[in-house]
């Protein structure tokens, strides 16, 4: 990252803060498939429309999602497709960390099972 001015870090932190909530990540992932309205997102996420609307408002304020009114319905879509590259990178790294943790715990689990077999 080039050296942005110090005040820019507040905007960067706000961007990442918008991504630091599981429901918002789920919304972003659902929008990967195409635009959706609040009702569709609420049904797919299993939350109320009011709850999803609050999350969408924040995502819109942070520039991650854009909205388009069509008659009485409002449809949401991703404003910047590059968010998926970031999410994919982070998800891949998290999965690798989880796998490493599982691999490290496996020898301990095998040892404990072996000790249990010896005791019986």
Protein traits:
2 domains, mainly alpha, Arc Repressor Mutant, subunit A, 3-stranded antiparallel beta sheet, elongated, 120 residues, 5 helices, 12% strand
Describe what this molecule looks like in 3D:
- With 120 residues, the protein is mostly helical.
- It folds into 2 domains: 1-80, Arc Repressor Mutant, subunit A; 81-120.
- The chain is built from 5 helices and 3 strands, in the order ααβααββα.
- α3 crosses α4 (49-61).
- It is elongated.
Strand order of the largest sheet: 1-3-2
CATH architecture call of the largest domain = Orthogonal Bundle
Euclidean distance between termini CA atoms: 58 Å
Question: Shape from CA axes?
Answer: elongated
Mean pLDDT: 90
Cα gyration radius (Å): 21 Å
CATH class of the largest domain: Mainly Alpha
Content-based structural category: mainly alpha
Total tally of structural domains: 2
Beta-strand residue fraction: 5-15%
**How many alpha or pi helices?**
5
Number of strands: 3
Order of helices and strands: HHEHHEEH
CATH topological fold name of the largest domain? Arc Repressor Mutant, subunit A
| Main sheet properties | 3 strands, antiparallel
Low-pLDDT stretches: none
- What portion of residues is helical? 55-70%
The CATH superfamily of the largest domain appears as Winged helix-like DNA-binding domain superfamily/Winged helix DNA-binding domain
